[in-house]
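Please check our next protein.
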Amino acid sequence: MGKRILLVYYYLWHFLASHLRLIAGVTGWQADVALTWFTASSTISFLCLVAMRLSRRTLAAFFVLLLALRGPLWSSESNLL
């Protein structure tokens, strides 16, 4: 039929995961897990920085980390509603 396509992507996330897969030689699932971890840690770091800048205290970053490690808010607060 046609040629085999080594790199198929629709969004930037898939593009990065496919490059990580080709460069590092990992499976697609492992590349997705690695990028998810990177995105989560970058987002939490950014939120800590914003909290510190707004409050001008380093303790705010600690509270952001505690809230992030707590998990999704919806599961706990949905029981109250």
